[in-house]
Amino acid sequence: MAATAQISVPGTDRKITVSTGLFIDNQFVPSVDSKETIECINPATEEVLCSITAASVKDIDVAVASARAAFNTTWGKNVTGFERSRLLNKLADLIERNAQELAELESLNNGKPVRLARDADIVDSVGCLRYYAGWADKITGQTIEVDNKTKMAFTKHDPIGVCGQIIPWNYPISMWAWKVAPALACGCTIVMKPSEFTPLTALKLSELVVEAGFPPGVINTVPSLGSVGGAAMSSHLDIDKVAFTGSTVTGRKIMAAAAMSNLKKVSLELGGKSPQLIFESANLDEAATWAAMGVLFNTGQDCCAGSRVYVQDKIYDKFLPILVEKASQLFVGHGFDEKSGCGPVVSKVQYDKVWSYIEAGKQQGARLVLGGEKRTEKGYYVDPTIFADVTPDMKIVKDEIFGPVLSVGKFSTEEEAVKLANDTTYGLAAGLHSNDAGQCMRVSSALEAGTVWINQYNLLNNNVPFGGKKQSGIGRELGSYALEEYTSIKAVHWNYGEKLDWPL
C-alpha cells in the first residue's frame, strides 16, 4: 500500500488524511519504477503541504491495462445503465457528505475560498454527477427504415472505451466531475491525470469511488507531470479517447500525439480571451457587477473569463468608475477567511506570469485605474487590476492572462463592437449587456463564441453544453452533447427477407 500524508486544517485541530500514491485498480499503490514525487504547495502560504508519487510512463501502462480489463469485464457493455446510474448517484451522495473536507482540501491546494469551493464548485459537481446519472439508462439509437418488406437498420451508441482524461488546476473538483460523469454514464472506463499543481482532491475523490462501489479499474488516478503522464496518455495505443482541459499550446501537442498514434478521439476545452460588450441601453450598475464577476471570479483563473470589456463611447466615462468601484469591493484573502471572495493565484509560475502582463500593460501605455501593486506578505496574491483606454495591439488585450486583470476599451457602433469582440484567435465565450431585444439577438448571433451570455456572465448549467470555436477547442462538455464525446455509433443492417441473385 502507498503512504499517506496528514494535512492540517487552518484554525482547527483537524487533519485531512490523503493517500500519496497512485490509484490503480481501486487501490493506492507506489510507482512501479519511479521515485519521482510532486510537491503540493499551499498558494496562500507558499508552504509545502505534502509530496505525492509522480506516475511514470510504465505506471500509465498499468493504469490503462486496469481500465481495459474493467471495460471488457465489469463495466462497458457488461453492466446496465440502471447500475451505472445507481453508482453515479451514490458517488454524488458521498461527495455531498464530504463537501466540507473536500472544500478545505481544495482551498489548501488551489487557493480558492473554502466557501466558494463548497457552495459553488462542489454543489455544481454533485449536480453534474446526478444529471448524468439520469442519462445513463437513456442512451438510445435509432431504428431506420430501409425496406419494410425485407430489411431494416438500427444504430447503437456504444461506449467508446478507455478514456484518458487530463484536467486543469483552476477547478480541480468541477473538472473532475465534468469529465468523469458523462464518461461513466456511457460505460467508459477512465485513466485520470489531475494537474501536477492540484492533485489532492482527485486522490481524495478516488477514495469515494471505492466506497461508492465502482468495480476496480473503472476509474484510475495517476498524478504526473504533463510532459510524462499527459504525453503518454495522448500517444497510448490502448486509449480510445483523450479529453483535455487546459492551454491551447498543450492542446495542440495532444492532438498531434493522438493523430500520430492510433487516431484516438480527442475533445479539447482550451484557452480564451473573451469579450464583454456594454451597450448604452444596458443597466450600468448591473452590467458593471457582471463585468467584474466575469473577470474576477476564481481570481481570473477561468478559461472563459471576460477579460476584455468594450463600452459604448456615449457611456464610457460614466461606466468606468462604476466598474472600478465594483472591482475594488472584492476582498482577496486566505481561503479560510469567510470574507474572501477570491484567493491567491495557484502557483509561483502563475503569479510571475500575471505580473509580467501587468508590467506589460503599464509599459505599453494602458491607463491603470485599479490595482497593479504587489503585496509584501507571503502568498501568491494578485489584487483586482483594471487597465482603461486599451488598444487592440497591446499584450494584455491579445493574450490570455489567466489572472484578475481586465482591459477596458470603447466602441462607437454595434458593428465596431462585434468586430472588436471577434478580433481574437479564441472563441470560447462572450457576453453582451443591452436592454434592446433586437440588438441582443443580432449581436449574440454575430459573436464567434461557443457560449454567449446576455445580461449576465460566467454562469453555467449542467444541462447546457459548453465548449469553444476557433483555437478554444473541439467538442462539448455538459448537457446531452457531452454524451456524444464518449460514444461511438454503430450501424447494424439487418436483412430478413431479401435473396441475393447470383452470379451478378
Automatic annotation (TrEMBL):
Residues 84-111 form a coiled coil. The active site is at 269. GO terms for molecular function: aldehyde dehydrogenase [NAD(P)+] activity. Residues 34-492 form the Aldehyde dehydrogenase domain. Keywords: Coiled coil, Oxidoreductase. PROSITE patterns: ALDEHYDE_DEHYDR_CYS, ALDEHYDE_DEHYDR_GLU. This is Aldehyde dehydrogenase domain-containing protein. It comes from Phlebiopsis gigantea (strain 11061_1 CR5-6).
